[in-house]
Amino acid sequence: MTIRIKARSGESAEQLMRRFKKMCEKEGLTKDVKRRLYYEKPSEKRQRALRKSVKRVAALDALSGKFGPARQAEAARQSKTRRR
Asked: Which listed residue, 14, 20, 36, 79, has the most CB atoms within 10 A of its CB?
């Protein structure tokens, strides 16, 4: 994850630093550094990943109605009709 920035002609140091900061955020470097600042137990890491997954599924469900409980109910209805 090497980030290299070349100064453009006429670019000030502030603009260069702003571009560097945006690239670091885009690469997820700042989040990674903050996350690694303290030790996180494996169980806490799994819980965080699970919460993130549940949140993502809920957002997709709200947008399309094809994920989560609505999808499970639809799948159950389809499986009942297939048996006949």
From this structure: 20
Model confidence over 46-80: pLDDT tens digits?
Answer: 999 999 999 998 888 888 766 666 667 777 777 77
Whether the Cβ atoms of residue 70 and residue 61 lie closer than 8 Å to each other: yes
3-state SS record for the chain:
CCCCCCCCCCCCHHHHHHHHHHHHHHHCHHHHHHHHCCCCCHHHHHHHHHHHHHHHHHHHHHHHCCCHHHHHHHHHHHHHHHHC
Indicate whether 82 and 47 sit together in one domain. yes
Decide if 4 is inside a domain. no
Which range of residues forms the domain containing residue 79?
40-84
- Domain contains 2: no
